[in-house]
Amino acid sequence: MALFQIIVGSMMGGSEYVAEACEEVIIAKGHQAKLNFQPIFSDLIEQKTEKDQIWLIVTSTHGAGDYPDNIQNFVTDLRSYDQDLSPINFLTIGLGDSNYDTFCYAAKNIMNLLISKGCTNKKDIFTIDMSLDIDPEALAQTWITQVIDHL
Predict the structure, then answer these.
(1) Which of 121, 41, 37 is nearest to 75 (CA)?
(2) Do 43 and 8 meet the contact criterion of CB atoms below 8 Å apart?
(3) Other beta carbons less than 10 A from residue 139's beta carbon
(4) pLDDT for res 91
(5) How far is residue 61's CA from residue 125's CA, in Å, rounded to a whole number?
(6) Euclidean distance between CA atoms 39 and 49, whole angstroms
(7) Cβ-contact 100, 64 below 8 angstroms
(8) Residue ranges, the chain, pLDDT below 50
(9) How many structural domains compose the chain?
(10) Which strand (E) or helix (H) includes residue 141?
(11) Closest to 81 in 3D by CA, of 118, 54, 53
């Protein structure tokens, strides 16, 4: 049984809904999940060596490829952290609008930052194009179900 730390970056609430939908699946699959709507890097890093912990990053992109306000401090602290992060496994879901050339930049950038810090990416990034007539929560639930089944 793994513990999923769901780290949410959201400006308008879409990422929060997707994160909550993923939480439902994670718990239904017999794992633990903790939503972090105001993620604090120091709190999460203290638990980095706990067995079977996975960080699930669910973030939208704001402005010209920027991180949402609520996750900016987390990213700043992650950037400046200089200790070993190799025990951390992670997954990334990005929400964005493909009409912009910065489609899912925040998710892509945090994924690359985590990789550069030695973290292990367990699956390719999952991007959700919010400009389409879709149900982003259902898409995320299908994806996380497949990922958990193959972990």
Answers:
(1) 41
(2) no
(3) 18
(4) 98
(5) 14
(6) 18
(7) no
(8) none
(9) 1
(10) helix 136-150
(11) 118
Position 135 scores a pLDDT of 96
Q: Could you give the CA distance from residue 114 to residue 85 in angstroms, rounded to a whole number?
A: 8
SS3 assignment, position 9: strand
Provide the residue type at 122 as one letter.
K
- 97-119 exposure pattern, b = at least 16 Cβ within 10 A, e = fewer: eeeeebbbbbbbbbbeebeebeb
- The DSSP annotation for 79-140 comes to HH--S--TT-EEEEEEEE-TTSTTTTHHHHHHHHHHHHTT-EE-S--EEEETTSS--HHHHH
Q: Name the 3-class secondary structure at 19.
A: helix
Length of the chain equals 151
What pLDDT, in 10s, does the model give residues 48-62? 666 678 999 999 998
Got the DSSP string for 4-69?
A: EEEEEE-SSSHHHHHHHHHHHHHHHTT-EEEEESS--HHHHHTTTTSTTEEEEEEEE-BTTTBPPH
Q: Which residues, other chains included, contact 140 with Cβ-Cβ below 8 Å and sequence gap of 6+?
A: 18, 21, 22, 58, 93, 126, 128
Cα dihedral across residues 84, 86, 91, 96: positive or negative: positive
CATH number at residue 69: 3.40.50.360
